[in-house]
Amino acid sequence: MNHNDWITVDCVINGAPYRFTTSPAMPLAELLRSQGLLSIKQGCCVGECGACTVLVDGVAIDSCLYLAAWVEGKAIRTAEGESIGGQLSEIQQAYTRSGAVQCGFCTPGLIMATTALLAKPHAKPFTVLEIRQGLAGNLCRCTGYQMIVDTVQACDRPQE
Q1: Pairing state between β 7-13 and 75-77
Q2: How far apart are CA 152 and CA 147, in angstroms?
Q3: What is the pLDDT of residue 143?
Q4: What's the 3-state SS for 92-138?
């Protein structure tokens, strides 16, 4: 691929504007990691494990399958963007406090999936089934998931 085949992409990452020159075929996960956003894990690279989950315009996506070219004009949030001024978000604190994280490899992706789930308007707490469906596609080999579900329930604040 020669330099003329590359594209320029403007987007917002964790609240800051970014401009990239990239190959049209580069996965978003690779681009983000190349910018030092190492919470994005590259596990399966085929959209099966969720370790690379980020939010694009508030929607949880597998960044290993999402091309960097597709983020033109969009807002991306990673686990790094969840903390403010060095203070972990409520969801990050809950995962840490509850012991829902063990090896930690899946944690950033689960935090982002949880963030997207809990941002959905809902008038009553999510059921266990709704939580499991909301986190589907995020694999954890360590916990057995019950502590993760408990953590999401502890963070769930129905919205009116």
Answers
A1: parallel
A2: 9
A3: 76
A4: HHHHHHHCCCCCCCCHHHHHHHHHHHHHCCCCCCCCHHHHHHHCCCC
DSSP 8-state symbol, 9: E
Q: How far apart are the first and last CA of the chain?
A: 52
Q: Is 139 helix (H, G, I), strand (E, B) or coil?
A: coil
Report residue 153's pLDDT band, with 50, 70 and 90 as the boundaries: very high
Report all structural domains of the chain as residue ranges with CATH numbers, in order of start. 3-78 (3.10.20.30), 90-155 (1.10.150.120)
Q: Is the pLDDT of residue 116 over 90?
A: yes
Nearest of 152, 38, 46, 126 to residue 54 by alpha carbon? 38
Give 70-113 pLDDT, tens digit per residue: 999 999 999 999 998 889 999 999 999 988 888 889 999 999 99
| Whether the Cβ atoms of residue 11 and residue 71 lie closer than 8 Å to each other | yes
SS3 6: coil
Task: For residue range 17-34, list pLDDT tens digits in order.
Answer: 999 999 999 999 999 999
Neighbours of 106 (CB within 10 A): 25
Q: Within 13 A of 109's CA, how many CA atoms are on the CB side?
A: 26
In this structure, what token pair is assigned to residue 113?
């999936």
